[in-house]
Amino acid sequence: MTQTRDQHRLEAVKRFNKKVLNPVMLTVAGRRYWYASVLHTTGRRTSHVHLTPVVAEPVPGGFVVPLPYGTAVDWLRNLEAAGTATLDIHGRHLTVGQPLVIDAAEALPLVRPSRRRVWRRLGIAQFLQVTTLSPA
Questions:
Q1: Which is deepest, 8, 9, 37, 115, by most CB within 10 Å?
Q2: Which InterPro entries match (predicted)?
């Protein structure tokens, strides 16, 4: 029963973020001094460009992005289908690709200690690693 409650809570947070928080975040994400980035993905069925605020932590050769809702999110499926996306981070526009889902044991040693502590506390188990391909 607890697992079901936790799943319902997670789904409620996910819906709230998608409908309320994400549109607000998109007004500032990707700016030079803001912590959140904007990931531009192309819909795998519609070919529409979708904007998703994410936390992209720089690592050698690319970025690590936490997946607090797991891998069953549309933006990740779109990125995996296309193979590349554009990331707006700290006022820069970069093309990223080679998406790879990794677990916390592999991702956390790559990121700075402050992120590591927060992501551990939040219990995030899966992460996306992407490679920087070029400036967009």
A1: 37
A2: Split_barrel_FMN-bd
